[in-house]
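Follow-up to my post from last week.
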Amino acid sequence: MARGIKDKVAILGMGCARFGERWGDDADTLMVEAFEEAIADAGIETSQIDAAWLGVAFDGINIGPSGIPLSIALRLPNIGVTKVENYCASGTESFRGAVYAVASGAADIALAMGVEKLKDTGYGGLPVRSRGLLFDMVGVTGSAPGNFAQLAAAYRTKHGVAKDDLKRAMAHVSVKSHANGVRNPKAHLRKAVDEETVLNAPMIAEPLGLYDCCGVSDGAACAIVTTPEIARALGKLDLVTVKALQVSSSNGWELQQAGGWDGSYFHTTRVAAAKAYEEAGITRPREQIDLMEVHDCFSITELVTMEDLFISEEGQGWKDVRNGFFDADGTIPCQIDGGLKCFGHPIGASGLRMIYENYLQLLGRAGERQRKDPPAIALSHNLGGSPIQNVSSIAIVGLEDA
Amino acid sequence: MTEIGILAFGAYIPRRRLQRAAVHAVNKWFAPGLSGLAKGERAVANWDEDAITMAVEASRDCLTGLDRAAAGGVTLASTTLPFADRLNAGVVKEALTLPDAVPASDATGSLRAGTSALLAALEGKQTRLCVASDLRKARPASEGEMVQGDGAAAILVGQGDVIARVVATYSVTVDMVDHYRSSGADFDYGWESRWIRDEGYTKLLGGALRDALAKAGIDAALIDHAIIPVSVRGVAAGIAKTLGVRAEAVVDSLTATVGDTGAAHPLLLLATALERAEPGQRILLAGFGQGVDVIVLETTEALARLPARRGVRGHLADRQEESNYQRFLFHRGLIGLERGMRAELDQKQPGSTLYRHRKAVLGLVGGRCIKTGTVQFPKSDISVNPNDRAMGTQEDYPLADRLAHIVTYTADSLSFSPDPPTYYGTIDFEGGGRLVAIFAEVSADDVEVGRPMRMVFRINAADEQRDFIKYFWKATPASEGGQ
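User reply:
Got it. Predicted complex:
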């Protein structure tokens, strides 16, 4: 394995806009909101930023192409700004760009921004768009819930889980995120729901009902990163460092080789998780990871992800979920901030929003929702695309000495 | 054997059967006079079907058990071709994965187009697939809406082991305009039905049949199956009686079950007759439209050896009652429903890309690695096999006729569909190859992991901005009716 980036880069500051239906604001406003918090947290001047990465997925619809929208919104000093797009992993990709720049020594201080202004698209749910000329001719242009819903039939068939049992486990995922979102002032949805409400909601894509799906929100999140040495020189005492950053993209195997993949899990997440654990030096993830933010775009996604991250035994994730293992007061809280489900899912911002929550929790700054036994190692995870063709990203951050 | 004749037949009838009583129940306030037609059912093409897709399915049925390469040419006869200037038969040829070196042509202009194409093929020397297909379109509350139906039939003509040989042919052309549809018009304009019955059917059609039998020197009483494709009650029987054809020889017009499928109808009834005929029987076939085509055939011993196929019988058995008249109107574009923003998806299909991938898109041809045997769709330069990234080793591997099984699925209520929810999922083909496919003609009871599926050629989407129809393959339950 490559040498990796463990503890080579520290988070100097982070910020996150309030997620939601920001009818009165443009993407620029959201980016500035996230940035102002981040740079105040970092305690630096804008002129000290050497390079920047912008993660945004629906560029044609909201802010347009290139890195220029970020450069203009923040009035950056003519530094290099690179736009990255990798579906729902775009935010984590922008973080990866900034972290790698610092780790390489090419930049002392780098900025990662993720933003999405989904509520100006006019859609409830994500807009539909082209996936390339050949795909458009032979692929199925289903909705996002439709694509991810297919995990369920494959999962319950493979593991012999009754439809009702799986549906109830999925419902618990959503009930948990709603309960957590109530305590998060920046979350989009801040209302608790009960299991019956989730179970009886209108069907969106069999077996995903309305409450099995995350909302779509406007939002932005931002990170400023540097080396631990510079961070200390700038007066930072408690450092949150990057332990691992891994991305895995489908190479067509899931889709194209019959019998190879059974549709019940994410091959890429397993690959990325194994590499991330190796990079971070984690050998027993169920014991060593204290907190998780995973890509709960749909309840079934979170459930199978628990297995793909090797936290739950294969085929047992649904039981862990129902037993409260991932509840806010459980063994490993997952989506303690409400997750995509309730914090919201502005695509390009989501990866950075997750890291933001982990960063706050690690520093004990998460307010009312702060985990009582303070976490030392936290994982975030994104999935873009659909189960059969996707990109999976994992970011593990932790206290410097953890 | 140099004798030319019929080698095989096939049919396609859409699964949904609109109940005429349901149509009349909505329209009777306006058109009470149609009550006499408000009986039985008619076949209605689904929203993703047209004359081309139905022709493909009838052709596949016709070619059951035969070597595709035998079809040395294709004629698609229809009065409802989706393209005015793009060879519709060319799409059928690609979908059937026939070699490029086959002539293909469209035949149109009258409801006689099907029999005229068959006649021309029978007078030629090449093996030719004659397929006739019509998706009828009539105004709501019209007689046409009640009596018409959608469907297709295919007849393979050629030399060799013919199941029916030609006894006689006859054709007359008379510009009798019983109905017409101008170029670009949506609906027919028809003249008085009594005039059509007396001057058209009785004199012109009846006269041509009489003249044809006389020219051939055949006694009408020796006809075992008389195909007189007129849906007006009693007309076929009346003509048969006048000619001296035995009443029991008159082939049922499928009026009660399918409706009049236009240019396809004579061939569809011919398929019915061939399904029921014994070797050594005589079939009288007529097509009517600005004249008359008459073909007299005699079945052979080879008929009994023809491999089993769905045929008319199988398609008639595989039916789903449809009482939702509004859905029918919406699928025909006769009423506008709010389709929502997701219907606005604009996916241009560039001609160059479609041309480059025509085998994959229209023929569902994947790739098989000659080194590892790995099958994949679509083909790629480097094999998908993760253990052997063989390069440039893939040969064409047709998947359309292979059985597949559901790996996983969903029913999507969010994405736009003219017939929600959209069922789709991942399917694995027997022998290798995988596809994420839309499921056609399914309801909740039809889908479960492991269920067998077969592929059907359908409209994938219509590009309304550029007025282009995009075709691809969908999966449908394999166990539904027929073979």
